[in-house]
Design brief:
Layout: H1 2-17, H2 24-76, H3 88-161, H4 168-189
Helix pairs in contact: 1-4, 2-3
Length: about 190
């Protein structure tokens, strides 16, 4: 029974010592990475919105230039001296041309909006993947830190229970080395 308890104790200690030491700061840094990811994502969305706002403004300016050109042509049509009499037929024609130009502008802006929405959806999907990965890593780091803290507490209690007569870290390290040597020897015998 005593051998079983000793072996069990050594197995638990071996498992606890196998964990890599991860500093608490790594959890804080991982949280900061998450905040940075969120800020970067928002900056990218803002940049996309600015880009498409500039494109919409450019379309509106092109519409204005096209309407100005149309009226310039209208004013110089048939050698007009800068004034033109608009009757109902001509006025309907002007309205039709202006509405046609406006409809083309609106169609182009609608296509731009569809592209903007699609691009934002892609950026949002990528952000969610990165954010989930970072959250998982943060959780794993926190777990590792917690295990390290618990391992230290167990070492402390065991040391106290044996009156500190044994250097546990040294004992565990030597035991791990012996186990590795046995495993190596078994692999070499194959």
């Amino acid at each position: 029974m005593r051998n079983f308890r000793s072996c069990f104790l050594m197995a638990v200690l071996l498992l606890l010592s196998a964990c890599v030491t991860i500093p608490q700061e790594s959890v804080s840094l991982s949280n900061e990475v998450g905040v940075g990811l969120q800020k970067q994502h928002q900056s990218q969305i803002d940049l996309i919105n600015l880009h498409f706002a500039i494109k919409r403004k450019s379309l509106d300016e092109a519409l204005s230039r096209d309407i100005d050109k149309y009226f310039e042509k209208l004013m110089t049509y048939n050698g007009s001296s800068g004034s033109i009499t608009l009757n109902k037929t001509r006025l309907d024609g002007v309205a039709t041309v202006v509405m046609c130009l406006n409809n083309k502008n609106n169609a182009a802006k609608e296509k731009l909006e569809q592209e903007r929405v699609l691009l934002i959806k892609k950026f949002n999907a990528n952000y969610l993947i990165l954010n989930q990965a970072n959250s998982s890593i943060t959780g794993l780091l926190q777990s590792a830190v917690t295990v390290e803290n618990e391992k230290s507490e167990v070492y402390k209690k065991i040391s106290e229970s044996i009156d500190g007569k044994t250097d546990l870290d040294k004992e565990i390290s030597e035991t791990v080395d012996k186990i590795r040597a046995v495993i190596e020897e078994m692999e070499n015998d194959r």
